[in-house]
Write a structure and sequence with these properties.
- The strands form two sheets. The chain has a five-stranded antiparallel β-sheet with strand order 2-1-5-4-3, with helices on both faces. It has a two-stranded antiparallel sheet with strand order 6-7.
- It has eight helices and seven strands, in the order αααββααβββαββαα.
- Helix 1 (9-16) runs antiparallel to helix 2, helix 2 runs antiparallel to helix 3 and helix 3 runs antiparallel to helix 6.
- It is an alpha+beta fold.
Length: 247
Amino acid sequence: MSETFDSVYPDFLRSRLGKLVELDSRRELLTLFSALEHFRHDLHQQDAGVGILGVAHRYVAGLDLFRSMGFWLVNPEDMSFILTVASPEGECGALQKTVDQQIKAGRFALALRRGNPVMFGMDGDASSEPGLLHALSLSKQAVGMFCGMLHREAAPVQEVAFSLLTLLLGECADALATLRKTKQLTNQVETLSGLLPLCAWCKKVRNDSGYWEQIDKYITNHSNAALTHGVCPDCKKGFLAGVSPKL
């Protein structure tokens, strides 16, 4: 993770949202826009997914909507969700259980499709806790998930706070997707710029798994290059040397 940041803006979200309902809220709005710009900056200063989620956690906490919350990252290997950042730590098990139940009930799929938070436990039953699921996604492709358990008492200007939540989580998803793409490109550059084990006779390349494969297949699998095939002048000359011209 990049070195930690020290910003007053998450605390601004906690203390100043209520000011937006006052008659003269222009100063509060300007500070809010500044907070969002600093949020984007803080996100893109991170060099790991856990760092990005750590920044998002701090700002979302500033909305003062949730008594507990968790952020999950998608494992690209099997598309499972991995709980990566949560608070308080003692709620991790309960959050995971809640998320598993809500995914099974189809609420995450609904949140992914809508691009907005999906509420649960809002039926007034004292035994069920209110909360929400929110996908971290770009173009309906999930890179993670957020789950928050709401305070029983409504937060100040709750409707504004929910809109800000969607904005913050959208920026978080964008930062995660950008980081993933950057790492993919970096890996491709490192693979193609390093030393390749090349057979001196057949010109096959040994891949990362220790198997030998055709160099054109290797390049296709490890870069965005699209290969076409032709015949160089020397090979063409050698191929035609043994062919008698037709009379």
